[in-house]
Amino acid sequence: MEEHGLCSTETPAGNKASFRETSPSGQESHVPSVINSLCFSSEVLEAIENVIQGVLQSLAQKKAPVLTVANRRDWRNIEFKDSVGLQMIPGCTTKQIRSDCPQSARRFALMLKILSMIYRMVQSNTYATKRDIYYSDTLLFGSQSVVDQIIDDISCMLKIPRRSLHVLSTTKGFVAGNLSYTEEDGTKVNCTCSTTAVTVPSNVQGIKNLNSHAKFILIVEKDATFQRLLDDDFFGKVSPCIMITGRGIPDLNTRLLVRKLWDSFQIPVFTLMDADPHGVEIMCVYKYGSVSMSFEAHHLTVPSVKWLGLLPSDLERLNICKDALIPFTKQDENKLASILKRPYVACQPLWKKELEIMAASKLKAEIQVLTSLSSDYLSRVYLPNKLHFGGWL
After folding, report:
1. Exposed, middle or buried: residue 74 (CB in 10 Å: 0-12, 13-18, 19+)?
2. Contact 348, 393 (CB under 8 A)
3. I need a labelling partner for 36 at 20 to 30 A (CA). Which of 88, 271, 348, 382 fits?
């Protein structure tokens, strides 16, 4: 079970430096990649050595060592900028993971353990997934969530993106459509000529030679909807496009890929979500980011994302039978109320109007509700009309 740092103390942190990146997303570095990689690896090693040096200095002074991490999940530490999304404020509050406190000593030890694993991986230029790290000693770590949160805390503490720590996420997203690229190991991937989806690469930072004639990017919430659009040859019939799904809440790699494609091609990015609070939440993660990863917002968010569907107002416009709609649960009500209070909603009056329609009806709908009109209504009528007539928000 994860400790919650009951002995931690909150203090304002100093101004935080921006994350150090090898090169801007979607652009080729002018410095040879091998040299660039070596230089950045030395920065990572130096950052970890500085942490360990601080621990040793505390011990030499007969003081209990502490590790200071930001309160990543506290909304008070978050500011909203329309051009970036949710980002951590420079002077955010922090908490101390103390080595001399029973409630946090174990977490302190686990952070040092994972820091040592990262150090060895960077030194040897090897990689591991978060799952690999957990399964290296399941009894020690206790649960996957403990490993996940510690790695994100370390990334935030060192001000280094997680992928540069040689820790990879397990990819669950898919991509298809008018896109080809080369992976870091030289493997050429062509999504255009594939009738099935391609798994989002595990090292998005390493892909290069991206090529596409797509007119837009379509983010699809659910795998089932994504597969249906593939089966209907949507991107072949309507217009060249790139389709991506995170299969629910997107993993880091899927978000990184959406951002990289947007940086590379500067084409519109649309979302196709269920008309429910959960779908809206997922759309907001792509567009504005999440509170827990706000320290890396500049590399993850896509502020230009547009809400294509399924809009709550579409349900009445299309005369969807109310029997096909699903009543809100208490959890839905709470989630929607939470979203309506968020700072970015005030900047999106049309979004707010749609959310208020949903709140007033207390009804939600999955994209599959469109099959009540016809089996291929989504790909044959709904999406082509939306794209042609500008039916997005």
Report:
1. middle
2. yes
3. 88
Closest alpha carbon to 226 in 198, 202, 188: 198
Q: Could you tell me how far CA 82 lies from the centroid of its own chain?
A: 17
Q: Which amino acid is at 311?
A: L
Active-site residue identified among 119, 127, 134, 135: 135
Q: Measure the CA–CA gap between 274 and 307, rounded to whole angstroms.
A: 11
Selection from 173, 179, 188, 182 nearest residue 253 by Cα:
173
User: Among this protein's residues, is 135 annotated catalytic?
Assistant: yes
DSSP letters spanning 37-84: HHHHHHHHHHHHHHHHHHHHHHHHTT---EEEEE-TT-GGGEEEETTT
Which amino acid does the sequence have at 161? P
pTM value is 0.80
392, 308 contact by CB (below 8 A): yes
CB 162 within 8 Å of CB 235: no
Query: What is the per-residue pLDDT across 160-199, written as a single tens digit (0 to 9) for each?
Result: 888 889 988 778 899 999 999 999 888 999 988 656 789 9
User: How many whole angstroms separate alpha carbon 271 and alpha carbon 362?
Assistant: 22
- 12-49 residue pLDDT tens: 444 333 333 333 333 444 344 444 455 568 889 999 99
User: CA 42, CA 85: separation in Å to the nearest integer?
Assistant: 31
